[in-house]
Write a structure and sequence with these properties.
By secondary structure, this protein is mainly β. Helix content is 12%, strand content 34%.
Length: 152
């Protein structure tokens, strides 16, 4: 192999190692699940998204049956580059693929957002729900139940 080709091969290997080293996993701890029925439907957004109608970066469907006896479920997102993100999720207990709401638009199923947002905000924008990757330890999201919806 010529020196030029060998040098190019070394550069390519170093570049691939750099890309691999910027990838992170994120452990989510979902707390306060009410039942083992249905699925948790999770959407990951860039924190810079203007609102929750933007295209999510990732979608996940997580079986609620995987929770422990304290209503806690762990889930891991893989291969995330470092950056700022936001999460919204809901517990689709009846499996119809949507967040059920009453006639006034109030959710009938449990939901959660990442981050801590001001008390006067009912539904935070992605920037208000932002967190940075990498995260030390699990990112805890406590589900809010419509009858007792108080956010962190």
């Amino acid at each position: 192999m010529t020196k030029k080709r060998f040098g190019l091969l070394v550069l390519l290997c170093q570049a691939s190692l750099c890309v691999a080293s910027t990838s992170h996993s994120l452990t989510l701890q979902l707390d306060q699940l009410r039942s083992a029925e249905g699925h948790i439907r999770l959407a990951l957004y860039a924190a810079s998204a203007p609102d929750w109608q933007a295209e999510p970066l990732r979608l996940a469907e997580i079986a609620a049956s995987g929770q422990d006896d304290q209503g806690r479920l762990l889930y891991q997102l893989q291969d995330l580059p470092a950056g700022d993100y936001a999460i919204r999720l809901y517990h689709d207990e009846n499996g119809n693929g949507q967040l059920d709401r009453n006639a006034q638009g109030i959710p009938l199923e449990s939901f959660a957002f990442s981050g801590r947002w001001p008390p006067e905000v009912i539904i935070p924008l992605p920037a208000q729900a932002a967190f940075a990757v990498p995260v030390d330890g699990p990112l805890v999201l406590s589900l809010l139940h419509p009858q007792t919806a108080q956010h962190p």
